[in-house]
């Protein structure tokens, strides 16, 4: 699992018109609204010239390259997967469309997103919702733990 996370980060490092600025520490968390083994999570900060939909397509391509199988015949919603890249925020942009919603619609409900996001940007605000830090208390019942191994290793 950690290999998939590192491979995804390597792919982000080589993404066209983009620069990987920072990566949070890695976390292990219990699945939320899903079953299966613990997940590994991190947040990456990109500086990109890509338009939001082009960036989303690149993320989907990286998932496919790393063996992600999207829902289809026999695939259940929220089934365990080896990689899942989500576009969380893009500056102050707010988008609500079928392929893309920004900010990510469940960002404020997930400790495994909020904790690493706040590691990178302690004062970050979620457009249209307020400070990300205020949401952390509401998800305190979600188990998340810092891993020793991180992106720098």
Account of the 3D structure:
By secondary structure, the chain is of the alpha+beta class. It has one domain (2-146): Alpha-Beta Plaits (2-Layer Sandwich), CATH 3.30.70. The protein has helices at 2-13, 52-65, 111-120, 133-136; strands at residues 18-23, 27-29, 39-41, 44-48, 95-96, 101-102, 125-126, 130-131, 144-146. The longest helix has 14 residues, at 52-65. 19% of the residues are buried.
Map the helices and strands:
Layout: H1 2-13, E1 18-23, E2 27-29, E3 39-41, E4 44-48, H2 52-65, E5 95-96, E6 101-102, H3 111-120, E7 125-126, E8 130-131, H4 133-136, E9 144-146
Antiparallel strand pairs: 1-4, 2-3, 2-9, 5-6, 7-8
First-to-last CA distance = 15 Å
* Share in helix: 25-40%
- List low-confidence stretches: none
Total helices: the number is 4
Query: Which class do the helix and strand fractions yield?
Result: alpha+beta
CATH class: Alpha Beta
| CATH superfamily caption | 7,8-Dihydro-6-hydroxymethylpterin-pyrophosphokinase HPPK
Shape: globular
Instruction: Give Rg in angstroms.
Output: 15 Å
């Amino acid at each position: 699992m950690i290999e998939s996370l590192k491979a995804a980060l390597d792919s982000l490092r080589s993404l066209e018109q983009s620069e990987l600025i920072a990566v949070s520490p890695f976390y292990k968390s219990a699945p939320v609204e899903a079953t299966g083994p613990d997940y590994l999570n991190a947040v990456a900060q990109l500086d990109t010239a890509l338009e939001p939909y082009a960036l989303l397509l690149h993320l989907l391509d990286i998932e496919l390259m790393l063996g992600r199988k999207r829902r289809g015949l026999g695939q259940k919603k929220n089934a365990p997967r080896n990689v899942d890249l989500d576009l969380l925020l893009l500056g102050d942009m707010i988008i609500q469309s079928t392929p893309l919603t920004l900010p990510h619609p469940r960002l404020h409900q997930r400790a495994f997103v909020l904790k690493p996001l706040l590691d990178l940007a302690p004062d970050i605000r979620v457009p249209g919702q307020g400070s990300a830090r205020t949401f952390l208390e509401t998800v305190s019942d979600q188990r998340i733990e810092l891993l020793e191994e991180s992106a720098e290793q």
